[in-house]
Structure formats: C-alpha cells, structure tokens
Amino acid sequence: MNQKKIIKQSFQVNFDFNLIFTSKLFETDNNILVDLLSSNSTSKTKAIVVVDTGVIDSHPQLKEDIDNYFKQYNDSITLEGSVLEIPGGEQSKNDETFIQSILENINTFGIDRHSYVIAIGGGAVLDAVGFAAAIAHRGVRLIRIPTTVLSQNDSGIGVKNGINYFGKKNFAGSFAVPFAVINDDSFLSTLHERDWRSGISEAIKVALIKDYSFFEWIESKVSDLNNRDKDAMNELIYRCADLHMKHIQNSGDAFEQGSSRPLDFGHWAAHKLEQLSNFEVRHGEAVAIGIALDSTYSYLKGYLSKPELVRVLDCIIGLGFNISYHQMNEQIIKGLEEFREHLGGKLTIMLLKSLGTGFEVHEMDKNIVLESINYISSYHSKKIAI
Amino acid sequence: MNQKKIIKQSFQVNFDFNLIFTSKLFETDNNILVDLLSSNSTSKTKAIVVVDTGVIDSHPQLKEDIDNYFKQYNDSITLEGSVLEIPGGEQSKNDETFIQSILENINTFGIDRHSYVIAIGGGAVLDAVGFAAAIAHRGVRLIRIPTTVLSQNDSGIGVKNGINYFGKKNFAGSFAVPFAVINDDSFLSTLHERDWRSGISEAIKVALIKDYSFFEWIESKVSDLNNRDKDAMNELIYRCADLHMKHIQNSGDAFEQGSSRPLDFGHWAAHKLEQLSNFEVRHGEAVAIGIALDSTYSYLKGYLSKPELVRVLDCIIGLGFNISYHQMNEQIIKGLEEFREHLGGKLTIMLLKSLGTGFEVHEMDKNIVLESINYISSYHSKKIAI
Ligand SMILES: NC(=O)c1ccc[n+]([C@@H]2O[C@H](COP(=O)([O-])OP(=O)(O)OC[C@H]3O[C@@H](n4cnc5c(N)ncnc54)[C@H](O)[C@@H]3O)[C@@H](O)[C@H]2O)c1
Ligand SMILES: NC(=O)c1ccc[n+]([C@@H]2O[C@H](COP(=O)([O-])OP(=O)(O)OC[C@H]3O[C@@H](n4cnc5c(N)ncnc54)[C@H](O)[C@@H]3O)[C@@H](O)[C@H]2O)c1
Ligand SMILES: [Zn+2]
Ligand SMILES: [Zn+2]
C-alpha cells in the first residue's frame, strides 16, 4: 500500500510588467495609456475604469478628462460604461458590495483576459479592484494608477492584493501581477498632509535594509519633503519603487512561499498598531513607528551603534512622524505571533546591523521590545521638549 | 510629457507538487498522508478536511476513518474541527455560502499558509474548496484528493480552480498550484456509471492530440473499461494524468496568459453543450461529443482520413457515450465566440491531423461545423440500428 507511484510536477511561470512614470496621463496629447492598451492587440481593445472617490473629489475634472481621452483615441480603444467610483480607504476593502459591483461591470461589459481593468486610487482601492480583476475569468488585465505616495512607491507596484474579511485585514487576497503600473505625479499635489507623509516611511524602510546612500539622501531632503517639493518626492518614489521591484525580482520568492519577508522590516509592530488603533493610525505612519522600534531594538541588542540609531529616529521625527502612541504598550508584543501566523512557519524578523544593511532573526526578546517602546517614547518627548 | 521613465519588472516563480497514487489512503497503516503533512515542518501541523457529500453517502465509514487516522498520528498532525461536508456537483460551485463556510473554518481554526486544507471529492468540490483555499491568506496549502475519474485524470491535477457566478460557469477563479494531489483508487468503485465513463473522454482527448499509442491502448481496453476493470482504469488515469501534467510543464504557459489552450481539444462545443443542456450533460460526456465533432470536422476538411475518423467515433460509441443530443444544433456555433472570449485574443482551436497529432487553426467554417453535427448524428443512428 505504501509502495506508491508518483508523478512529479514542476514548472516555472514568467511574469513581467512595466512601471511607467508620467505626468498628466489623461491629457489628450499623452499617448502612454493608448499605446499601452493597444500594444498587444490588432483589434480594438476594451477597458473599464474604476476610480477612488477621494481622487475624484480632489480632481473634479478627472472623469471628463478620462471620457475625452477615450473619445480622442476611439479608433483603437473603448471605454466601456462610465467610470465606476468606489470610496477611498479601507471602506473599499471592508465592504464586499464594491467587489461585487466591479465584477458586475467586468461581466456586463464583456471584459475578458485580453481586455483591461484600469484602477485609479490609493492602495486600498487598488487592492479591492485588484482582487476583483484577479478572480474574474481567473485574471483579467489590470492597469494600476496609484495616486498616493504609499501606493506609488510600495503597494501599487507589488504583486499582490487583499481585502478585509471577518474583520481581519487582508484575510482574503491573491498574488496577481499587474499588466502595467503608471505613476502619475500630478495626483500627488492634492494629498492630505498625512497621506503625503505616510508613504515616505516605506522609503526609509527599504533604504535602511538595503541602501545606505538612499538613506543619506532622504536625510538630506527632510525639509524639501516637508515643504512638499515635487522633485524630491518624485526622486524618493522612483528610488523606493526601484528597490522594491528589484527585491521582488531577486528574492526568488515573489509569491511568498517561504516564511521570510524582508521588505516587512518594521511591519510586525506596524500591523498590530494599525489594528489596536482601529486603523486610526495609517499604514505608513505605523510603519514609521515600527522602524523606530526595531531600530531601537537593534541598538539595545548591540547590533546598531547609538549615533546610527539617533540618525534613524531624527530622520523619522524630522519628517513629522509621531513615534509615540498610547497604543504602543505591551499589547504590541502580540503582533509578533500574529506576524508569524500570517506567513506561517518560523518567526522571521528583519533587524539592522548597520544603516543600509538588514539581517534576519528568528526570535525577539520581549523585555527588550518593551524597553525599546519606552526608549522611543522618551526620546520623542525629549525631542519635542527642545 | 511622453518622455517617460520606465522600470521593467520581470521574474520567475517556481511551482512544484507531487501526484501520488495509492489505495485506501485513510487506513491507519498507510502513512502517505501523515508523511506529506509533516514533511515540511518540525512542529505539529494543522489541517481541516472538506468532503463531497456524494462521497460520504457512498463511503459512510469515511468520516470515522479520517478521525481515526488523525488520532493515530496525533503526535505530528492535528485535524481541526470536524470534517466539513459540502454537496457534490455544481451546487458547491453555484452557491457562495459554501465558499463562505470553508473560509470560516480556515479562519476559526487558524489555518495559515503553512497549514493544510484537504479537499476530498469530485471536480466540482475540488474547485470550490480550491478557490477558498487560494484566496484565504492569499493561498493556504491545498491537498486535493479527487474521487472521480475526471478529477483524478484531469481537473484535480491541474493548476486552477473556478466557481460559477452570474450564472456563468467558472466566471470567478484563480490559477493556484496544489501542495499535493493524491489519487486513491478505492474511491472509484462507488461511482455512478455516468461518472465512471465521463472522465474517460479526457483520456481520449489527450491521446488523440498527443499520443497515438495511448489511443490504441484505449481502443484495446474498451470492454475492460465498460466492465469496470480496476487495473484498466488505473492505467488509463495514470497515463492521462501524466500527459496532462507534462503538457502543463512544457507548455510554457501554465497560467494561460496566451490565447491557446491545446488541452481543450473538443472543448469549445463541449462547454456550449453543457450550458445548452442546463448541465444535464456532464462535462466528460460533453467532451466526448466535442471530440467527435472536431474529429469529424478534421475529416471533412481533409486533415483526417475516413478510417481514422471511424476509429475515433467507434471508440467513443463503444465506451457507451451518447454522441447525439437534441441540443446539438446550430446553437452550438455560438460556443466558438464564447470560447474565444473566455481566453481573449485570437480564436485558437485544436484539430487533428492524424490520430495522436493535433494542430491549431484560427477559424472554423460554420457550414462544415453544421455538416459535422449532422454527420455524427447519422453515424450514431446507423451504429445503434446495427
Ligand atoms: N497590496 C499590497 O501589497 C499592499 C502593501 C501595502 C499596503 N497596502 C494597502 O494599501 C492601503 C493603504 O493605501 P494608501 O496609503 O495609499 O491609502 P488609502 O488607499 O487608504 O487612501 C488614503 C486616502 O487618500 C485618498 N486619496 C487617494 N489618492 C488621493 C489623491 N491623489 N488626492 C487626494 N486624496 C487621495 C483616498 O480616497 C483615501 O481617503 C491599505 O489598505 C494597505 O493594506 C497594500
Ligand atoms: N479546475 C479545473 O481545471 C477543471 C477542469 C475540468 C473540469 N472541472 C470541473 O470539474 C467539475 C466536474 O467534476 P466531476 O466530473 O469530478 O464531477 P462532480 O464533481 O460534479 O461530481 C459528480 C457526482 O459524483 C459524486 N461523487 C464524487 N465522487 C464520488 C465517488 N467516489 N463515489 C460516488 N459518487 C461520487 C459527486 O457527489 C457528484 O454528485 C465541473 O465543475 C468542472 O467545471 C475543473
Ligand atoms: Zn508597508
Ligand atoms: Zn475537460
């Protein structure tokens, strides 16, 4: 009975896509989108468009621009139906009826695996639309047009999506590679201050674990970034996106089959803080504090020097991030086990051995985590007092 | 403005799994499952089990066997909760509440990406469970235990899943590679006659497009298969599964990003017939007639010789398949466009140039399709009259 026959299956799948940087994508003389949509086809291609209401509110002319754009290129591309709006932020990921309405449009307008769903919005809307596009016909082509800093430099350029279920963040989702991503910097001007700042933490994160010179550059641009300098932000997004994409390319584990997720430096505490604050604390804000925490822990364990730690904390504080929240207490420790559970297998946490170089450990000393929490909170108070 | 920066992303993902053949998987001295579940882990692994009610009805001792099995190996593996039953056949794919209840069990029992969902049943139940497992935590480990001929030699060993939505078959789904598949031949003895026969058509299909000697072998085993000879069926399943898996391995397009799907010989008409008959005609039965149709078309177009066509039709009829249905009329033609739409892009249809060798065309002559329908229907009547 245990004498068994086995057939072994083994194959590779290749994935590729372009991240394109532009400005004013829907001005009629910008042919990036029309070229992209018609690149793979000899006949007319169809697309539906889904937009974050937060984006529409700040860019009231956008729907008309989109309509005009498609009219202009009517020979080769068709906009099916009218632009579908879904609310920005976690709402879009919490309420299944939005997924349902995207699927309905895909069905009604006959969007197939060679047609397009174009999603315009913050990371949350991109996640919701991405999920619907990934499950319809086992995956129709998705073009992401991220409109926040975080989505342009991190979530929107990755290869996964997620929706909330059973009250759990990203309980459902899939790995799904977009057909293309277009970062249009003209969206960024209307971001609220918190959303402008929030995504900068992902750049600090990836700089700290992979690229010292990028960290130095961020330090040098703190006041430009605070003054909403467009060039500084464009460069930050470009370099951060590039590091993220290279990581996915070279990790050998783009679909996270293992237990390690190096790009999640600072994220175990961040996820827990988001949850403890009922998502009052934004993802990027939570990541900033998670970075502060794990950098302090690296210092207290003797991996990072004190001057190095000071540079990390000062950079984060200098950018206007709050690194002290009342929810930062012993409750945070539970985030460790939840982080392990999410990926399964062995706990794997990224720490810093120097600025620009991360390394992985498989356990954390809870007392030193608590000490780190106190350390950053009193560091913050002292800074503010000055 | 069109002077644009681009970052190119490109990466590979490796997938592998084993298809294991066994008998009486849940006898306590069969250690295949326990070895598999504990192979990747140093600590105790958790699993939930979902079973097709049609299987439970025919194997009433199965639930107890499963319980005893997990008790016996309690040191290394845990069965979480009790076995979840979901109805066999399309019901499981039509009604979202089943997906919901699988997701609930995954959530309640803390099944993570390194824990297991074990699905036991026909192709429909495997599809429904597979979909839920694929979206939970962006994919938890799925072990498929197919219990029908079709699922053991075709659907259960593939890399996708699907559920019905908007009344459309497989409207939603995903590409998702199982952790392992176990074919246990002891399930096959209880299949209804139609389900025993149905999956044989997939073997004929793959033999005709890829492996002449396998087709000859099937011809020689018609009466054994009709007499439900176990050894003949085991060999048929093994060879068919092997050809399917090698195809996926070597196609270079396991996730169907292109417009061609060579394993879907005979399927454009089959899908339409299933739908026109309100799924009264089973998938494998519809495939048998789809093969008859496209083989006849190949003959009428001059690709296949008459003696070759006769062998195909006689083999199919000899196995007891019906190749004439009143739904086989000009309505079927619509299946061509729907087939093209499902994959998108260019219509791509497999035909035969000889027994064992398929080739692709990009259009079909509608009049000759209609002629083929008439041809097989009168061929069938004559055969029956003899
Ligand atoms: N899939 C992934 O890999 C991944 C990775 C990280 C984060 N995420 C997800 O991303 C989400 C967070 O994304 P986010 O930080 O982009 O925030 P968000 O999507 O929650 O958007 C924040 C707010 O900004 C508004 N907004 C968006 N663009 C705007 C613009 N140009 N002008 C004015 N307002 C605008 C939105 O309407 C919303 O109210 C979370 O749901 C998180 O889980 C996903
Ligand atoms: N995912 C894929 O790649 C793929 C490919 C082809 C087909 N499919 C799907 O597979 C499904 C058809 O699968 P199927 O042919 O296995 O039929 P099925 O799953 O519909 O099952 C047929 C019947 O047999 C019963 N049954 C199952 N095992 C039994 C056993 N051992 N003894 C007695 N009864 C048993 C079931 O309860 C059901 O009533 C369709 O939904 C089709 O879309 C999927
Ligand atoms: Zn993040
Ligand atoms: Zn089939």
TrEMBL record, chains A, B:
Highest rank taxon of the organism: Bacteria
Keyword NAD (UniProt): yes
Requisite cofactors: NAD(+)
Matches recorded under InterPro entries: Dehydroquinate_synthase (IPR050071), DHQS/DOIS_N (IPR030960), DHQS_C (IPR056179)
Keyword S-adenosyl-L-methionine: no
Keyword annotations: Amino-acid biosynthesis, Aromatic amino acid biosynthesis, Lyase, NAD
GO function term, MF aspect, one: 3-dehydroquinate synthase activity
Cross-referenced Pfam families: DHQ_synthase, DHQS_C
Domain 3-dehydroquinate synthase C-terminal, chain residue ranges per copy: 199-329
Membrane-spanning residues: none
GO biological process assignments: amino acid biosynthetic process; aromatic amino acid family biosynthetic process
Domain 3-dehydroquinate synthase N-terminal: 84-197
NCBIfam families linked to this entry: PRK06203.1 (NF004852)
UniProt name for this protein: 3-dehydroquinate synthase
Species assigned in the record: Flaviramulus basaltis
Species classification: Bacteria, Pseudomonadati, Bacteroidota, Flavobacteriia, Flavobacteriales
